[in-house]
Every structure is written in C-alpha cells, then in structure tokens.
Design brief:
Layout: E1 3-6, H1 24-31, E2 35-38, H2 40-44, E3 53-56, H3 60-64, E4 69-72, H4 79-96, E5 100-103, E6 114-116, E7 124-126, H5 130-137, E8 142-144, H6 145-151
Helix pairs in contact: 4-5
C-alpha cells in the first residue's frame, strides 16, 4: 500500500459538518487500491456531523506534549478523542506499511501546515493537527491534498 488518505478527500462525508472534500485523483487512488482511507476523528470516537473543534494554546505537537488542548466550540475538552484517533491512525499506517499520508489541511487532526487559531473566528495559523504531528514524529511523510496535487 502506497498511501493512507483522509477519508473526506476520497469522497466520504465524514467532516465535522457532514460533508466531504472530494479530490477525484485521491478517490481514484482508493479505487485502484493504491490508497486506504482513514478518518482520525471517527477512529477517535466522534460521529458525523459533530461540533467544530480547534486546538487551543498551540498546535498538534503541543497537544501530544500535553501543553495544548482540543476544545469544541461549546467549550468541551475533546483532547483525549483526538489523541486516540491519532494513535489509531498511526497503527493503520504501520499495519499498511504506507510510504505517504495525505491529510486534509486546516483540520485539528489532519492539518499539515495550517490549522485554525483556536478562536473559532475562521483565522488560520501555521501549525499541524494532532494526527499529522504524531505521524511526522514517527517518521512518516505527511502532506496535504494541495501538496499532493503539486506532485502530480
């Protein structure tokens, strides 16, 4: 298996608001069995749709270091579920022996370079989500759907 990809990029309506972010080329990879889909948030125990959440006090790396949290818009701390989903995604990457992980930019799980700033004001900052941070920490190549498209 070459790729592990965010399920929403392959057309699965699993984003927080019940939508997908279909990328037809990524969907083709899955159909050709060159990629497997994963949704860290669903693996962590969330359902779809769900309340939006953002990282407060840092980035995914800080969440893993227990110096930042993932908080729902209503104020509920959901850090544990994000960490659980990240580690389950890591297990999948290891089992599938993938060479590259393509994740959805801006997500508190999957953001590879940019995430929302934690104020729920649609403002993005440099940083990565919890799953992206863990996978990189473990040596995986992690890119966004935009970077993947640039490589084609």
């Amino acid at each position: 298996m070459k790729y592990l990809v965010s399920s929403c990029l392959a057309g699965v309506a699993c984003r927080y608001n019940g939508t997908a972010s279909l990328d037809e080329k990524i969907q083709e990879l899955v159909e050709q069995e060159q990629a497997k889909m994963v949704c860290p948030e669903l693996l962590g125990g969330f359902s779809t749709p769900r309340e939006p959440a953002e990282i407060i006090g840092g980035t995914g790396k800080d969440v893993l270091a227990v110096t930042a949290k993932v908080i729902k818009k209503s104020g509920k701390d959901v850090t544990e579920l994000y960490i659980k989903g990240a580690y389950k995604t890591l297990e999948w990457a290891r089992q599938l022996n993938v060479s590259c992980v393509v994740l959805k930019e801006f997500s508190p799980s999957c953001g590879t370079k940019m995430i929302y700033d934690g104020n729920f004001a649609n403002h993005k900052v440099y940083g990565e989500g919890v799953t992206a941070a863990l996978l990189r920490q473990e040596g995986y190549t992690v890119i966004s759907e935009n970077e993947w498209m640039e490589q084609l």
